[in-house]
Amino acid sequence: SSWTDYDTKLLSPGGGVWSRSDKSIRLPREARALLGIAADAVPPNEIVKAILKLEVDLLWNGGIGTYVKASTESHAQVGDRANDAVRIDGSELRARVIGEGGNLGFSQLGRIEYAAKGGRINTDSVDNSGGVNCSDVEVNIKILLRLAERQRGLKRPARDRLLASMTDDVASLVLRNNYLQSQAISTLEARALDRASEHSHSIQFLERSGDLDRALEFLPDDSAFHERVKQGQGLTRPELSILLSYSKIWLHHQIIESDLPEDPYLSNELQRYFPQALVDRYGDLLNAHPLRREIIATATTNSLANRMGPVFAIRVAEDTGASVSAITRAYAIARESTAMRDLWADIEALDNRVPASIQYQMHYATARALRHATYWILAHRSKALDVEAAVAELKPGLSRLVASAPTLVSGRLAAGMDAQQREAMAAGVPVALAGRIAALALLQSGLYIVDVAARRKLPLEQVARVYLHLGTVLDLDSLGLEIDRLAVDGHWQSVARASLREDLYRLHRV
């Protein structure tokens, strides 16, 4: 089949299907008006260029060939001679959003140029990840069903019916995975300038580890990074997509080579990976899946990197000397002890109800709280990283503290939390959710409070009142805010600020 078989009766008035091999094309009046073309007959290449330059909401590239380059690139550098005559520069694009359904529809430098002028674009690998994810899930389901055929006597007709019945479930799983990845990139983009030094440090780390070739992926060198920051710019969305991807590659390598896939608690990722109908019927066969470790490692990698970004695991490993296995367990303890999955679900339920920028701010607040909690757990529970046991110890107390926050806090801490809650409510965030986001400021102190109450066998509320009252009367809360406001330039200044913060919390507890 070809485009000549397309039913032209389905086209809008003025639409048509023409061959790019024609010498010229006589466009209908409606098409000329849309494309801004005055002549009746136009060479096909000029029409393609006009289409690429349209001022539209979405330009979707689903074919083969590279149609956009950077103004600094030559056609020869792109390496797609068949489309030299129609290719445009990223600076010439006027579409608000680009979707790449094909491979290499844009050069990476073309993407960066377009994104630098405000365009919304990922990379082709991100936009195509749904298809790759779907294929992976399909293959792994069929492997599991093969086990069911061999060990449970599942017949091929019944197997085929079961496979077909899970179509929508697989689609939902794949869409969910890709929603989270896109959300992660958007959250990174919202803070790209603020986190520029950390992004630069992570690129250096990934280069040293041998996972990333900066020049090959067109990421800025150190001097270019500094120049961007001076101009008030961080990494663009296509560059952040690359950084996130390579951080996942590094993280996956670390996890697959560790004992983490054998962790009883994190092994639950295996059940989340497959459709529920399959888990209900053949869940007892999951541990026999030959790619069990790889599935758990991939799911754990995505869970950590999508929520915490590409910098988190690298920075914690450098700052604490902890292994990725320990960091991941500590993060899981922090996530489950704070019931963060429930909070994320409530934030995501606001899609298209509040500005996306407000959601990104809330997601950043959750990541910041989890980062502090992970450091605390590694510092104070490093020898007891049993996820289930640690969650049982910490979660009840933290839940009580968050619920009682309005009656416990005072002074500048209370004022800051109240202001944050009011700001979120003004943007349309429900009262309860806004309060829970504001209460994240209590989590770092909350871990110390729960710890002291347990060790001293004292009532939690009593310890909380004394601890928080000391913070007010000694003005430690103000000191903490000043530490948070310290400007940092580079990785080591960031480490120094974190050390100051930890010293303050330690002295407060003592």
Please tell me about this protein's structure.
The strands form three sheets. Strands 1-2 form a two-stranded antiparallel ribbon. Strands 3-6 form a two-stranded parallel ribbon. A two-stranded parallel ribbon has the order 4-5. It is built from 25 helices and six strands. The chain is mainly alpha-helical. The model has no long low-confidence stretch (mean pLDDT 92). Strand 4, helix 3 and strand 5 form a beta-alpha-beta unit. Helix 17 packs antiparallel against helix 18 and helix 19 crosses helix 22.
What's the count of strands?
Answer: 6
What composes the largest sheet? 2 strands, antiparallel
Q: How are the strands ordered across the major sheet?
A: 1-2
Low-confidence stretches: none
From the N-terminal CA to the C-terminal CA, the straight-line distance is 76 Å
Strand content: under 5%
Radius of gyration from the CA trace? 27 Å
Mean pLDDT figure: 92
Shape verdict: globular
Helix content: 55-70%
